[in-house]
Amino acid sequence: MEISKFNQSAVINSAKSAATKSTSPATEKSVITSESTPAKISHDFEVLSQAQQQLSSIAEVNLEKVAAVQQSIKGGSFSIDLEQIADAMSKQHGNK
User: Fold this and answer.
1) Stretch (H or E) spanning 38
2) Fewer Cβ neighbours under 10 Å: the N or C end of the chain?
3) Is 42 in contact with 18 (CB distance < 8 Å)?
4) How far apart (Å, rounded) are the C-alpha atoms in residues 12 and 39?
5) Could you read off the pLDDT of 55-95 as tens digits, one per residue?
């Protein structure tokens, strides 16, 4: 989830709410929000925030795989097994 100016207040309010309900003083950290008031956020929220930053640095598309598929299409070796796809779809969504 990307934090933009639009949803920043909701995230801050959620963090404030979570901090007052479920954290102990040992796991809280004081931060300054855009409203210039200190807020307590839980350790879990801090971990999620760090994970979000790390995930944002990872490419959403594996360019190596894309290049390999492009090469196999150009080379004529790309094949599609429709039966295997249908079986996988049936397993995913259940047989009806």
Assistant:
1) strand 38-41
2) C
3) yes
4) 8
5) 888 888 899 999 999 999 999 999 999 999 999 999 999 87
